[in-house]
Amino acid sequence: MKNAKSNFSEWYTEITKDAKLCDLRYNVKGFVVFMPWSVASMKKMYAIYERELERTGHKPAWFPALIPESNFHKESRHVEGFTPEVFWVEKAGDNVLEERLAMRPTSETAMYQMYSLWIQGKSDLPLKIYHQSQVWRYETKATRPFIRSREFYWIESHDAFSSLAEAEAQVHEDMEMSTNVIFEQFGVPFVFFERPQWDKFPGAVNTYAADCMMPDGRVLQLPSTHLLGQNFAKPFDVKFLNEKGESEYCYQTCYGPAISRIYAAIISVHGDDSGLVLPYELAPVQAIVVPIPKKGAEETVNAKAREIVALLSSSGIRAEADFSSNTPGFKYNHWEMQGVPFRVEIGAREAESGELTVVRRDNKAKSKVKQGELAAFVQKEAKAQISDMKKKALAEFEARMSKAETMEKLADELKKGKLVAVPFCSMGKEGAACADEVKAKTSGDVRGTRFGKEERAHGNCIVCGKKACAVAYVASQY
Amino acid sequence: MKNAKSNFSEWYTEITKDAKLCDLRYNVKGFVVFMPWSVASMKKMYAIYERELERTGHKPAWFPALIPESNFHKESRHVEGFTPEVFWVEKAGDNVLEERLAMRPTSETAMYQMYSLWIQGKSDLPLKIYHQSQVWRYETKATRPFIRSREFYWIESHDAFSSLAEAEAQVHEDMEMSTNVIFEQFGVPFVFFERPQWDKFPGAVNTYAADCMMPDGRVLQLPSTHLLGQNFAKPFDVKFLNEKGESEYCYQTCYGPAISRIYAAIISVHGDDSGLVLPYELAPVQAIVVPIPKKGAEETVNAKAREIVALLSSSGIRAEADFSSNTPGFKYNHWEMQGVPFRVEIGAREAESGELTVVRRDNKAKSKVKQGELAAFVQKEAKAQISDMKKKALAEFEARMSKAETMEKLADELKKGKLVAVPFCSMGKEGAACADEVKAKTSGDVRGTRFGKEERAHGNCIVCGKKACAVAYVASQY
Questions:
Q1: What are the chain A neighbours of B43 within 8 Å (beta carbons)?
Q2: pLDDT tens, residue by residue, B95-105
Q3: Measured distance CA(A474)–CA(B204) in Å, rounded
Q4: In terms of CA atoms, which chain A residue is nearest residue B129?
Q5: Would you say residue A394 lies in a domain?
Q6: CATH at residue A35
Q7: How far apart are CA B288 and CA B341, in angstroms?
Q8: Do B38 and B145 fall within a single domain?
Q9: Distance between CA atoms of A475 and A447, rounded to whole angstroms?
Q10: What's the CATH number where B420 sits?
Q11: CB A95 to CB B40 under 8 A?
Q12: What are φ and ψ of residue B25, in 5° steps?
């Protein structure tokens, strides 16, 4: 690669192009074509998320991509928040439709009218449904492949309960799931913030969102989970009969991991100057076998390469050999750029001795491994690899945490790419003016308060000087 | 169920509603909500199809849902065939778009402009890509859930080659894949027809389509594969440099199994008067454990039921127990309707003796099985079950085959729900008038000639009396 990762923006542009992750030349603005190397990984991410959702009692359903405009108008904040971003269908063939239809920007207004029909009594609760889908939003912010585009791939789960306590527990479960998947399995560290009241999901009571840190010191929002309370249940008439025979509105939550955006975080956090470093479980190819031809021994070397691919495959390792006419050095660079976790080098000596050279992608450590032990070695090292990747990413993330008690210090820390804790007057609507001033003076955004961590505020609001009642976190954002 | 399967139309309406396969009450005409019981099976169908596509060298990609109108106009027959069915997006937020965008009715015109960028030399070929997606078509025919709706779920593969021979071989591979999946694994028999020239996919050289037989004697088209030749390569400029350094147009094929429609065929072909009969591999629950409570022994029976579920699950069998307050008889009927392949009955006697009653859904055969042998029994019987289901379905399909040499006989056979071989003048455009007359007089459709079966025509065209040059098949169609 030409660009070092310290030059993150160029690095990102280059890697998404050169590793063939996507193609920006599609002729609709803000839309990209996702290419096989990224899609193969994102399909595995979907499978992992679906397994977690099913383990926690969710069932799959498919809701229509088109939603009548009137559905949006049922929840006033929701319509306000989303209609400016909606792609509208008004015609089909030569016919003008009676009512215009929105391409779903999110599915609350498609799903909850059905929930109202499906839920009668307590035995229908909890109702926990997930939907793997694409959504479309006419973003006016600059688009960036995987990070923000007008079409993105996500999975949304929408749950309904008979009590607020259960809904609150669901929000916790969603956050735990995010940790289990995104940190534990994909190795991307983040923190959950309770978003300020002025920055909630349109229609929610509270929004909890995971922020990870990109290498340029800007935070990227990963999944958010929303406590909807009865805000949607009322307009959509989602009710159940309680034990006393009385009709009661359900309590709802929704959760939406954007697979394409989480992929952006994975490649950004783990990548290095040589290119991608993919988590073993997500890599389309987990071990690449590179034959090093020697005059006269070509067939011996190639035969051994095929044998090793078969051997690794039979242990369930996704292995391929590169028999192209490129030089070994070119192949090393190429497969390092693609982020393949293990490289197995086979020269004439290795073919004869059966002792192979194995190189780990993340730390480039070399080992000599006997053929009979190769599969077990790869599987064991794969565990060490993701563990090391997590440790490294976590250390980098923690080094980004900082604090400030003055606007000057805050501005300095933000310039250094930090996520900065500051004393703040209020996370309610009253605090919005101070957040605006932070934005105007430092271009930092108030992300909210740390969820699940009691942090007592000391001193005065960094902006207005009133007594602080919250520790707010500020960062530059994507 | 109220309706017997002999009353197919009512049976189908009832089963899709009562087994909670879909909900027709969504408020956009022609769109349905696919509910968990069907989606869980369709997700497995996708996984099976994707495995086959990857096995045959296809890679996954995701193309945008929106296609600029001008892309459609590049291939004149394609634009003619599809634009009357397109949902158009002309506005986003409050902005009128510069060019209106089609919600993809199929992806040729989105994909091939990218193929033109991706393919340079022979080393880029063959290019074999699949895309799991939904498509939208403003159908004017009556919609029927799973069978025909304005949004459907499919998987499309689009392949490019350097020679016509390879493209033709791909069409064969697609047909073999259809047999491997739809007949061998899902148990639905069909035949492949080469469609008449007047009934091709818009823009194709030839269309080969699988027709299966629904219980009311009407054929339903399952996957079709299309030899596109260079018809799209030319307008979309999909070229490669051949060995002589000359620029040549690629030869293309496309294949599109509609998962939701194949699901319709599966439930229709295998279902019976008691409801669904799901193929073992596709069933969301493969074994349902029904405890039969006896006063005083409730806890023994329930504990045994839980133990049996754990035992089956540990062997990879999707098992659940029904602990609801319904009667055993109600539960038997319910799970039979849902098509669960095996039922395990546990009463007080079974709980004590450890010898359980197992009932197969397809033939309702009962067996006594010792607890220690249960998992192996289910796995073995599962193989026998799909094999028996295939045999039964194939016998029914073959009994539908018939022939006729006069229009009177043809009309009679069609009334009996047959797929009728007739002598026919021409499958080229010249034959279209005779096909129209068949339609007008018998409401039968000419489906084409049997693919891969040399059938020599004798006598004269059943319509115009000219010398027959093809054995055409006629059927009523969905």
A1: 60
A2: 999 999 999 99
A3: 57
A4: A36
A5: no
A6: 3.30.930.10
A7: 8
A8: yes
A9: 7
A10: 3.30.110.30
A11: no
A12: -85, 5
| Contact residues on chain B for A28, CB-CB shorter than 8 A | 64, 66-68, 101
List A residues 91-120 in contact with B (Cβ-Cβ < 8 A).
Answer: 91-95, 101, 103, 110, 113-114, 117-118
Taking the Cβ of residue A330 and every Cβ of chain B, the question of whether any pair is shorter than 8 Å is answered with: no
User: How many domains does one find in chain B?
Assistant: 3
Nearest CB to B62 within list A88, A94, A153: A153
Whether residues A63 and A117 share a domain: the answer is yes
Measured between CB atoms, does B375 come within 8 Å of chain A? no
For helices A298-314 and A374-399, the axis angle rounded to 10 degrees is: 70
CB contact under 8 A, A34 and B62: yes
Token digits for A335? 């497969």
Question: Exposed/middle/buried for A262, CB within 10 Å: 0-12, 13-18, 19+?
Answer: buried
Nearest to B419 by CA among B440, B388, B398: B398
In a domain, A2, yes or no: no
Query: Are B92 and A88 in contact (CB < 8 Å)?
Result: yes
Put simply, whether B121 touches A (Cβ < 8 Å) is no
Q: Compute the nearest-CA separation of A66 from chain B (Å).
A: 8
Distance in angstroms (rounded) separating the CA atoms of residues A209 and A227 = 11
User: Which structural domain range is residue A415 located in?
Assistant: 401-477
Kindly give the confidence (pLDDT) of every residue in chain A, 478 residues in length, as a single tens digit, with 9 standing for 90 and above. 889 999 999 999 999 999 999 999 999 999 999 999 999 999 999 999 999 999 999 999 999 999 999 998 988 887 888 888 999 999 999 999 999 999 999 999 999 999 999 999 999 999 999 999 999 999 988 889 999 999 999 999 999 999 999 999 999 999 999 999 999 999 999 999 999 999 998 899 999 999 999 999 999 999 999 999 999 999 999 999 998 999 999 999 999 999 999 999 999 999 999 999 999 999 999 999 999 988 888 899 999 999 999 999 999 999 999 999 999 999 999 999 999 999 999 999 999 999 999 999 999 999 999 999 999 999 999 999 999 999 999 999 999 999 999 999 999 999 999 999 999 999 999 999 999 999 999 999 999 999 988 899 999 999 999 999 999 999 999 9
A103 contacts B89? CB cut-off 8 A: yes
Residue at B325 is within a domain: yes
Q: Which residues of B touch A110 (CB under 8 A)?
A: 26
**Helical packing angle, B36-55 and B259-270, nearest 10°:** 110
Q: Using the beta-carbon criterion (under 8 Å), do B101 and A62 form an inter-chain contact?
A: no
Q: Dihedral sign for Cα B152, B153, B159, B165, please.
A: negative
CA-to-CA dists, residue A321 to A301, A462, A477, B109, B149, angstroms = 11, 58, 41, 34, 45
* Calpha distance B290→B99 (Å, rounded): 59
What distance in Å separates residue A32's CA from the closest CA in chain B? 7
CA neighbours closer than 13 Å in the CB half-sphere of residue A392: 15
Q: Which of A64, A88, A94 lies closest to B31 in CB terms?
A: A64
The reply to whether A225 falls in a domain is yes
Q: List all residues 6 or more positions away from B276 whose beta carbon is below 8 Å from its beta carbon.
A: B15, B19, B267, B270, B337, B338, B339
Nearest Cα residue in chain A from B151: A64
Same domain flag for A352 and A217 = no
Side-chain half-sphere of B3: how many Cα atoms within 13 Å?
A: 16
| B223 and B109 share one domain | yes
Tell me which amino acid residue A341 is: P
The complex scores an ipTM of 0.96
8 A C-beta contact, residue B240 and residue B250? yes
Q: Which residues pair with A67 in a beta bridge?
A: A102
Distances (CA, A) of A16 to A241, B81, B130, B195: 52, 36, 20, 43
